[in-house]
Amino acid sequence: MSSTQQTILLIEDELPIRRFLRTSLIGNGYHLVEAVTGREGVQMTASVRPDCIILDLGLPDMDGLEVVRALRGWIQTPIIVLTARGQEQDKIALLDAGTDDYLTKPFSVGELLARIRAALRHSSQVRPELRDLPFQVGQLRVDLAMRQVFIGDDEVHLTPIEYRLLSILVRHAGKVVTQHQLLREVWGPEYADAVHYVRVYMQHLRHKLEADPARPAYFITEPGVGYRLRID
Ligand code: CA
Question: In the predicted model, is pLDDT for residue 180 greater than 90?
Answer without folding.
Answer: no
